[in-house]
Amino acid sequence: MRIREIHLTPVAFRDPPLLNASGVHEPWALRTVVEIVTDEGVSGLGETYGDISHLDRLRAAVPGLIGLEVHAHHAIYARVAASVGEDVVVDQHGLIGAGSNQKTVDAVFSPFEVACLDIRGKAAGLRVADLLGGPVRDAVPYSAYLFYKWAGHPGAAEDRFGAALDPEGIVAQARLFIEEYGFASIKLKGGVFPPDQEIDAVLALRDAFPDLPLRIDPNAAWTPATSIRVGRALAGVLEYLEDPAPEIEGMAQVAPEVPMPLATNMCVVTHDHLPPAIAQGAIGVLLTDHHYWGGLLRSTQVAALCGTFGLELSMHSNTHLGISLAAMTQLAAATPNINHACDTHTPWQQGQDVVAPGALRFVDGAVPLPEGPGLGVELDRDALAVLHENYLKCGVERRDDTAYMRRTDPAFQPRRGHW
Ligand code: GKR
Ligand code: MG
Fold this sequence. Notes:
Layout: E1 3-14, E2 19-20, E3 23-24, E4 28-38, E5 43-49, H1 52-65, H2 73-84, H3 101-124, H4 128-131, E6 139-141, E7 144-147, H5 167-181, E8 186-189, H6 195-208, E9 214-217, H7 224-233, E10 238-242, H8 247-254, E11 262-264, H9 274-279, E12 285-288, H10 295-308, E13 312-315, H11 322-333, E14 366-368, H12 381-394, H13 401-408
Parallel strand pairs: 7-8, 8-9, 9-10, 10-11, 11-12, 12-13
Antiparallel strand pairs: 1-4, 2-3, 4-5, 6-14
The chain binds D-glucarate (GKR) and magnesium ion (MG).
């Protein structure tokens, strides 16, 4: 089965004003939908970032992939690497860690690989999880991913989630998510308010949901000294503490001084980071993300390495749609050592999607592995057209949480090692 056509469709969908250490989410989130069609007419889907620089790299990779076998994983990777050349993408919102050439290649390769696996699964009548070694769980647990947020975007009406700017607002948001999705663990995006206010929010969550595992992720907004203070204040409360301080060296200072494991999706984001992070004992949990770890198969290899070196695994998420949720679910279902509930931004999507409804659902906070072959989701072409139209009209070409925040607060500075 050879690749005959590749279609790249940038899309935009509405996103609430979620606050983080870099600023605030813009009213529109961007993604790119990748569709590969084979010479036999079988098509497969992938989903990735929608920033214009990434879209341009995807476009540049396409001609080299036409005619390749969908099974030719290594040849496809080599062609993508050749098209990327020496480029290094610097993450524009500063929340998923340092850039490197390998991370850029891996991020460009990922949606093509996912689409090829979708095709391979459909052709064989197997789920992607079967191609990755077979599912070890029927449903993948996700966590309630809470954000501090404004009531609505500046100048717009209040959205359905309302404001969450204090512990009461955060607990109310958790209740809504747990009622609607049944989540059985909770993550709070921090790095927004001074750490003591965020400690209070975590303690309020612990009081409201005494049985649920909790995490906080300030995206490296704290110094190592503050991270140690917060970690100790939350002894016995957190399942793990995610990216409290910047860089492997900062995390390595914190790790031996706090009672819970440290997790990251910022200081270990490519293979080169694993040896120093392991040697320095900087982390106990890696949040994988197939979008920048080179797709699904390479993510299972990273997972195996983590097992060898005694690291636990969770999964990172950025704002995404259903193709990504399906890929994340197939991967987590087939990765035995993903032993923490995965992150997802799904509730913030408010039903907007490019996949036909029905295949993906939440039951008690977990997504059952879709039944169909491949990823188990189908493109809804009308919905894709609407979201593409949004992209053409919205005027956003790259995610920039800091610039958007500065429209409201011109003096705002991203908070890296700030508190
Ligand atoms: O959506 O604002 C956000 C998150 O902060 C996201 O960009 C991060 O990459 O969720 C992510 C994380 O765990 O660091
Ligand atoms: Mg994180």
